[in-house]
Structures are given as structure tokens and as C-alpha cells.
Amino acid sequence: MRVHGWVMSAVALALAGCNGSNGSDYKNLTFSAGVGGTVTGLEGEVTLVLNGAESLRVSADGAFRFSRMLTAQTAYSVTVGSQPAGQNCSVTNGTGTMANSTINNIVVSCAASTHPLGGHISGLIGTITLANGSEVYTTSTDGTFEFDTPVEEGAAYSVSVQAQPATQTCSVSHGAGTMGGSAIDNVTVVCSTHTFAVAGSVSGLMGTVLIRNNGGDELALSSNGAFEFPIAIAHGSPYAVTIQAQPATQTCSVSHGTGTVTGDVSDVAIVCSNNGFNLGGLVSGLHGTVVLQNNGADDLSINNDGPFTFSTGVAQGSPYNVTVFTQPASSTCVVSNGSGVMGSTDIANVTVNCSLNATTLSVVADTVVPVHTGSGLLTVTNTGSSTAVNIGIDLPPGWTSVVVDASDCVDLAPGASCNLEFTSSAPYVAKDGIEITADNVSSPPTTTLGFSIDSYLVFAVESASAATVIDNNTQGNLQWADLQGSTTANSLTNGKANTLTAVAELSLDAIAAKACNNSAEGGAAPGTWYLPAICQLSSSSSWASCPAGLPNIWDNLFRFGLNPVAQGTYWSSTDSSFPGAWNAQLTGSSPVEMQDVKPNSAAVVCVRSMSY
């Protein structure tokens, strides 16, 4: 059974008399009562919390009470759940233990949020009195200071020197402002036995401009000419002249307005001009950075295509003249619609059209691209006088497995070099005349790209998984055979078959075919390398009647300068009807195919098929 206050006592006595047991059941009754009190000084809304569970929102001064009833001997605790905006509320008599009556003595006092105001004093000799409104602070010691009375959030503060030391002048900087959400501790007071004036001149003024030094010393100017702030500044103190209020129809700006006082300051310049209109337009074709100027003074740096606007407006009736002050490194920009007289609306039709300057490039003669392992680098050098932009390469059609990384060559300054990096998952027959590209290159250079597998140069691609390579070493000067007789190794195109036939039909160990057949170069098993047929060495003449278009060492490697071995005369594996065999002179600008007697000596270079 729950009843409230004094009613509970009456009910308890009645029950005690009715049960005939001298009130023995009274002790089993449950007493409950409310919890409340008074709110004062509230502006806004505060949320109170009872025992961490029940919330009560209060938006006006006066009495409050939680709806929840608490039984006797129950602990209660009233706290602030959320503060009003800009205020801080505290609770008095907020905790205790419930008796047999309502709790109504809790007091919630609210006041505006405040924060300390202070800073640092230096150079002080004597006693100084600082003031913030009616609040004063007196000290005779350098170091930090803080006013006794904190300042409410949102309230203005203005620290000034109310009483100077007897033999000094102290000046205040960072002394005025509006209190935010945290303490102000950067008010600076510098004292010196020497003080100096802060002065300058104003020009172009029509109306009244209000200027301020160090956030506090204000001076209203209504005419052009010299001015001087009334408060002198101590030696070593900073000064900062700002515009506090502009003239009605003008904009004034300050130059030479900040510094540290070491003597009289007389060069502060206030320049005023009629309020103007925006001047701008559009830039297109830009690569790099262009700097524009208006009327030979107002600089604007632009890095991208698109609209632009000068930061300083142009007064109505005043002339404007937009020019290119600094051209981009790789381009020439031309201004159109750049001059005129400002009317009563913004100007937005100035156009700046940029075009890349032509330059020249050079590259190395050839580059080898390894298949599957590592990469090939092609060095490009800018031999012109302008920055080359977006350098790349025009790969032959069908070279789909080749990947080019041109990130090193986006912008290349005159005289500098960069690298195009190549990787590939498949080989291709070497090709010359591959053009190097750039956005602004004239007479683009060309290069040759070849491919290698396990460091062996490819001269023929047999299939999607195999290619024919040439050894990096020769086998010395060897006889084809010590006999003049013929063998059946007479294929013009199948060096593998010729080699096996010659090895089987000839017994002399030092023959050219056996030198390749027995080679273990690169860890290969015997029989892997073979002596190329005459048309695998060269097909550049009609002496051997080679089929047109057959891949061969001369056409696909040597003529490009891609030769892992020296130029010279090399035996083929092709026997001939003449009592001799075919060899090829791979020298000069074109090869010569010949028949030579077999006991004569010539160099041997071996080839093989490799999977990739």
C-alpha cells in the first residue's frame, strides 16, 4: 500500500486499531514521498536527473518536482543532465536519504558560463594597473596575470592600462575581443622606459574610416594625409594596424601595418578606393602555371583551366588591362578582351588561350624488353627549349601484352631525361621506327624495341607459347666438316632438322652442327640448341632462294643493332650441292649468303626454341 505524506500516518493508526494487535502490522506499511526544490537564474532550459534514471526538463525559474515517488530510507541524488546554452547550473542539497516527508529544499542555481581572462606582462619596472571594464588588476611583477572575475561567454572584453608604472609606458596587444568557449590567456602587456609613435598616411579617402592599433587604440580619419595613433607603443612591442570600419562607399586597405616597435613608425599606409566590380574570365589549354596581372600590379596565379577572378575589384569608371606576367614553362598564353573601362557590372569575358610550345626529344637507338622478368628502360632526353608534356610511345598494333609506365615522363624540362619503363608477358619480333610521342614535340624521334627470354634475344615468335632465341656467345671458328662430300642436311629453313642430320651423318667431333647440338648453355640439355639454317641466318639476297618474310637473325636483330654477338661470317646448318655448305656474312649494311668448302673455318652461333 502506497500513500503520501501525513495521510500515511492516519491510515497507519486506523489499521493498527482494527487489527486488534496493538499496531503490530504498522511496521509493514511503505511510505513514499516526492523530490523537488527551486530553480533560480535560469535562461534557457536545464535537464535535471533523479538517481541517474528520471529526467526533468525545466525552462523557467521556480519550483520543480520529479514525478517519481521514493520510499522512506531510499537514497536520492539530483544532478544536472544537460546545461542551458551559455549557462552553468549547480545543485545544492541534491543528495540525501528519504524521510517520511517530501524533499523540497533542493536548490538549482544557474548563471552565465564564464572563462578566465589574462595573459603575460614583460619588462615591468614598478607597478601597473590593468582594467577590463570596471575590473582592475594591479601587479609589480613580470609574468602571467589573470583578472579575478571571469568573463561571460559572448561578452566583449577590452584590456587597457589604467595606471602606468611611474617611469615606464606599457602597451597592450591582443587585448580586445569577445569571450568564446575557452579561457583567454594571450593578452600581451609590454613595458618599456621608451615609447614610440605609430603613424602613417591615408590616401584616396572619401568619407570616414575607423582604424585600430593592437585591437584597442582607435582613430577615426575623415581626410587624406598624415595620422598618428594617440597611444605611444613601448620599445619591443608589436603593433598591428587594422581597418575597424570602412567608409560607406569605399574599401580601404593597410600596408606596412604590422611589425615590432624599435623606433617611431611612420610608414603605415592606408589606401582607399571606390568599391569596384569583379574582373575575370576563362583560361583554356593550360599546362603548368600562368601568372596574370591587372594594370601591372594585381597578380593572379592560375594552375588549371576554367574560370578565374582577380582578388581586387576594379572601381567603376577605372581602366583595366589584363596581361600575362609569367608564361607557363611549356606553353604560351594569349589574352583576349583583356582591356577596357569598368562599367557598373562585373567583367567575366576575359579569355586566356594557352598552347604548348614545341620542343624536341632524343632517345637511345634500341631497348630490350624482358618477358615476365624485370623491365626495360628507354631513356628520353628533352633537347629543346620548352618543357615536354605527357611523353609516351606509339606501340605497334597487336603488342597487347606490353605495358608502358610513363609516370616518370609527365613533364620533362629542357635538358632533362626521363625513363619509359616496359614490361611484357609475351615476346614480339623486334621492330624499328617506333615513335616517341608528347603533347608538344615536333619531329618525334623513333626507336627500336626488341624482346628477350631469360636474357636471350628473340628473333622469331613461333606460337602463343614459344619463341626462337639466339645465344649470347659464339662457338669459335670451326669447320663445317672435314669432308667435301654432301649430307642430306639441306633444308633452307629447318635448322633443327639439319643439325640432327649432320650430327648423325658426320663423325668428326669439331663440326659446327655438333658444337650447337652439344651445347649446355643456360643449363639446357644436349640437343636443345641447334645450328640455324641459312634462311634463319639471313634472307636478304636471292643466293639461297629463301622464302620471303621468313624470320631470321639479320632482318629481326642484326640490322637494328640488336646483336648479342659480333658481326662476322657464320656457318649455317644447310648443306649445298656444291662440295661445301652455306654460310652468311652478317656484316655492314646488308648480309651476303655464300657457299664455302666445309673444311674452311667460320664462326658458329646457336639458336633454340624457348617457352614463355
Question: What keywords describe this structure?
Answer:
612 residues, mainly beta, Immunoglobulin-like, 6 domains, 4-stranded mixed sheet, 5 helices
What does this structure look like?
The chain is mainly beta and 612 residues long. Helices cover 6% and strands 50% of the residues. It has 6 domains: 34-112, Sandwich (Immunoglobulin-like), CATH 2.60.40; 114-192, Sandwich (Immunoglobulin-like), CATH 2.60.40; 195-274, Immunoglobulin-like (Sandwich), CATH 2.60.40; 279-355; 361-453, Immunoglobulin-like (Sandwich), CATH 2.60.40.10; 466-611, no CATH class. β50 and β51 (446-453) form a beta hairpin. Residues 1-28 have low confidence and may be disordered.
Total beta strand runs: 57
Shape: elongated
How many helices? 5
Largest sheet: 7 strands, mixed
Into which percent range does the helicity of residues fall?
Answer: under 10%
Mean pLDDT: 90
Rg measurement, Å: 49 Å
Detail the topology: elements first, then pairings.
Elements: E1 2-4, H1 6-18, E2 30-33, E3 35-40, E4 46-50, E5 54-58, E6 62-65, E7 70-71, E8 75-82, E9 87-92, E10 95-97, E11 103-112, E12 114-115, E13 117-122, E14 128-132, E15 135-139, E16 143-146, E17 151-152, E18 156-163, E19 169-173, E20 176-178, E21 184-192, E22 195-196, E23 198-203, E24 209-213, E25 217-221, E26 225-228, E27 233-234, E28 238-245, E29 250-255, E30 258-260, E31 265-274, E32 276-277, E33 279-284, E34 290-294, E35 298-302, E36 306-309, E37 314-315, E38 319-326, E39 331-336, E40 339-341, E41 347-356, E42 361-363, E43 366-370, E44 376-382, E45 388-389, E46 392-393, E47 402-405, E48 411-412, E49 417-424, E50 431-437, E51 446-453, E52 456-461, E53 466-479, H2 495-505, H3 512-517, H4 534-537, H5 553-556, E54 568-575, E55 580-586, E56 592-597, E57 601-611
Parallel strand pairs: 1-2, 3-11, 13-21, 23-31, 33-41, 43-51
Antiparallel strand pairs: 2-7, 3-6, 4-5, 4-8, 8-10, 9-11, 12-17, 13-16, 14-15, 14-18, 18-20, 19-21, 22-27, 23-26, 24-25, 24-28, 28-30, 29-31, 32-37, 33-36, 34-35, 34-38, 38-40, 39-41, 42-44, 44-49, 45-48, 46-50, 47-49, 50-51, 51-52, 52-53, 53-57, 54-55, 55-56
